[in-house]
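User: Show me a protein chain along with its predicted structure.
Assistant: Here is one chain, sequence first, then structure tokens.
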Amino acid sequence: MFKILRLFFAPLLLAGSLLANGARAAETIKAVKLDGSSQSARLTLNLSGPVKYTISTMSNPERLVIDLRDTQMRAKLADVALAGSPVKRIRSGIRNGVDTRLVLELTGATSAQSALLTDNGVQLAVDLTPRAAGKNKGKVQSVVRNNSAAVADTPRSNKTVKSADNGGQRDVIIAIDAGHGGDDPGAIGAGHLQEKRVVLAIARELADIIERERGYKAVLTRKTDIFLPLKTRRDLARKAQADLMISVHADAFADRAATGGSVFALSNRGATSTMAAFLADSENQSDAIGGVSVEGRDDDLVKVLTDLSLTATMDSSLRIGRHVLNSMSGITHLHSERVEQAAFVVLKSPDTPSILVETGFVSNPSEAKKLASAEYQRRVARAIFTGVNRYFSQNPPPNTYLASLRRKSVPQNVSAADNVATATP
């Protein structure tokens, strides 16, 4: 009798155990999306919860393999649009009874960077960029940088003259970087105001103002809601041979009473205030949020910081920052009345003066309301340009239209060098 009962209940107990284990362990892949182009694409897996995963590449033929532990496929891979991307085909299978393996068949050798994102549900983001097969790591990083630039609005590689009216003199080129973007919303403040949207609007306004001013040329690192790695942003400014890079932000702080604008320049000796250190840490983590690893780049940063030209670049950045800060004081309370210094990755360029402008705190309800206003965004953009213009009018780069104006304005008995030396920084 007992043997018969055991034979009867054993299958039921086994089935119950499997169901219990499956319900406890398995997450699901709810949707799969592929965005971008053959030069740079992002694969996004919408997940029901956090998962452990591994990514590896295989050659002959080129493939990318993603293994997700205790995960079930619920998305329809046949619905994923692959046209124009580096992916020819996506297929999936089950491993160990509970794991899911995704195999991406690629058009060529490809580098992959990944991260789990948790800002809007749980997503596994995998950034794909082509690389030259058989090249060493340094060469591969160079290819990745160039292809990352293709995602953004690729700046001009040479300093150009805006019009024939400049008399053969080139424009002063200003690179404008709207912080965050894409999967990285930046700070989220009162009324769910996203930093990435505020700063993109201000950056566009600033670019419009610059383009209307004779002798200037604006270059935006991004014109749309896309993510760019921090290093790519500064590389874009260098590729454009910009005379100045302005990174625009609107941050948040634990104290909702924090308010006002700030201007930052690079420091190679650490932050000058607790606030500067906090903001630098939060901005520098954008690379991890956006799915790009910053590991292995210490050597590059060390070279930048030890470059002799960086001293002069930092000095120019501080002087420009003072002008911008003074101009901003006319429209908003200043959180700090001096140009702060911190180790922002985006500012670490050896030969391009760079400043980071915090236009306000979206965490402050009253300031968030102002920052969401198109009129206030225009006022902020105008204040930034006013400060920049004051500096370059007094210290125009050689062979620029502004330099020709400066020569005409200098009295005959005063040399240009003397005039610049006595100019207010």
